[in-house]
């Protein structure tokens, strides 16, 4: 049974020769990269990622979260910040540049229609999976999902934010800025940063989450599920907020990866299971986990 399951899992990851469509640079050495990879785009799910060769001279691939995927055009959009030689090389890739990609990799987010009040929290380069999940929720509006997306960054946001036209109860009055893409989808969003950008809440994005949850009734809280991706301290704080209000929470972890297909076990994290603690691989066992299993202290 184990061998069969492993073969089935391996069959979900594709090796594809992708092509750069375009790149857009944003302040803070942030880049939004669009590539054409039709086979991966057709299979990508919110929370999955690709393992990409940044340059033929650099054999080690880099794991990058998918921000959007369009199975019709075959395009995949990725947001990344330049850290190290690999991503610096990737940032120089122009239209038409070939890139070798493995993907889609990992178990993504699973939204439960019985919890339609979906709270999406993204921090820094953890924002892309939240945008992808928001895109999925829009495509499945018939299930009754009502998303709210909260994004935080200490760098300038990799988009020109605007004043929101969608009211959100429970938000501090200073929090008026939103992501235009989400606004165009009809989804409410709010931004947070300790830097003090215009229209952004001055503080942590988890403080915005706490404010919104605080205004909900007990029956409404039973309909909430939180989805989050970002730095580990942010995820731990998110897990604490979720436990405080007794709501379900899924987190997508960020770890250094070598192979990204479960072979090297270099990205393992300690996770609580029904039989006790165990080491799980973020790449193929995750990257999405139940928050209480990764941050059990929040559940105590």
List descriptors.
9 helices, disordered N terminus, 24% helix, Elongation Factor Tu (Ef-tu), domain 3, Rossmann fold
Explain this structure to me?
- By secondary structure, the protein is of the alpha+beta class.
- It has 2 domains: 11-105, Elongation Factor Tu (Ef-tu), domain 3 (Beta Barrel); 117-299, 3-Layer(aba) Sandwich (Rossmann fold).
- It has 9 helices and 16 strands.
- The protein has helices at 2-10, 38-43, 84-91, 127-139, 180-184, 205-214, 218-221, 232-245, 291-294, and strands at residues 14-26, 30-36, 49-52, 62-70, 75-81, 98-105, 117-123, 148-152, 162-163, 177-178, 189-192, 224-229, 248-252, 268-273, 276-281, 288-290.
- A 6-stranded antiparallel β-barrel has the order 1-2-5-4-3-6.
- Strand 14 (268-273) and strand 15 form a beta hairpin.
- The protein is globular, with a radius of gyration of 19 Å.
- The model is unreliable at 1-9 (pLDDT under 50).
In angstroms, what is the radius of gyration?
A: 19 Å
Give the averaged pLDDT, no decimals: 92
Distance between the termini: 35 Å
What is the percentage of strand-forming residues?
Answer: 25-35%
Looking at the overall shape, the CATH architecture of the largest domain is 3-Layer(aba) Sandwich
The strand order across the widest sheet is 1-2-5-4-3-6
Topology:
Layout (H helix, E strand, L loop, with lengths): L1 H9 L3 E13 L3 E7 L1 H6 L5 E4 L9 E9 L4 E7 L2 H8 L6 E8 L11 E7 L3 H13 L8 E5 L9 E2 L13 E2 L1 H5 L4 E4 L12 H10 L3 H4 L2 E6 L2 H14 L2 E5 L15 E6 L2 E6 L6 E3 H4 L6
Parallel strand pairs: 7-8, 7-12, 8-11, 12-13
Antiparallel strand pairs: 1-2, 1-6, 2-5, 3-4, 3-6, 4-5, 9-10, 13-16, 14-15
Helix pairs in contact: 6-8
């Amino acid at each position: 049974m184990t061998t069969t399951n492993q073969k089935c899992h391996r069959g979900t990851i594709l090796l594809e020769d992708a092509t750069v469509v375009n790149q857009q640079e944003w302040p803070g050495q942030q880049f939004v990269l669009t590539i054409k990879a039709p086979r991966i785009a057709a299979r990508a799910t919110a929370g999955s990622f690709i393992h990409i060769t940044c340059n033929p001279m650099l054999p080690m691939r880099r794991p990058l979260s998918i921000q959007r995927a369009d199975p019709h055009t075959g395009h995949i959009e990725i947001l990344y910040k330049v850290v190290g030689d690999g991503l610096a090389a990737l940032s120089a890739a122009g239209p038409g540049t070939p890139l070798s990609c493995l993907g889609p990799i990992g178990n993504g987010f699973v939204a439960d229609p019985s919890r339609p009040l979906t709270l999406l929290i993204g921090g820094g380069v953890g924002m892309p999976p939240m945008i992808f999940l928001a895109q999925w929720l829009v495509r499945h509006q018939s299930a009754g999902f009502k998303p709210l997306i909260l994004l935080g960054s200490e760098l300038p946001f990799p988009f020109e934010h605007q004043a929101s036209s969608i009211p959100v109860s429970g938000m501090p009055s200073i929090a008026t800025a939103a992501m235009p893409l989400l606004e165009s989808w009809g989804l409410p969003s709010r931004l947070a940063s300790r830097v003090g950008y215009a229209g952004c809440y001055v503080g942590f994005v988890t403080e915005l989450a706490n404010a919104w949850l605080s205004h909900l009734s007990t029956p409404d809280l039973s309909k909430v599920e939180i989805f989050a991706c970002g730095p580990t301290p942010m995820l731990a704080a998110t897990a604490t907020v979720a436990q405080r209000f007794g709501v379900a929470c899924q987190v997508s972890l960020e770890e250094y990866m070598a192979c990204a297909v479960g072979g090297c076990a270099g990205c393992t994290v300690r996770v609580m299971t029904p039989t006790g603690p165990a080491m799980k691989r973020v790449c193929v066992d995750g990257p999405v986990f139940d928050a209480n299993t990764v941050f059990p202290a929040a559940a105590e």
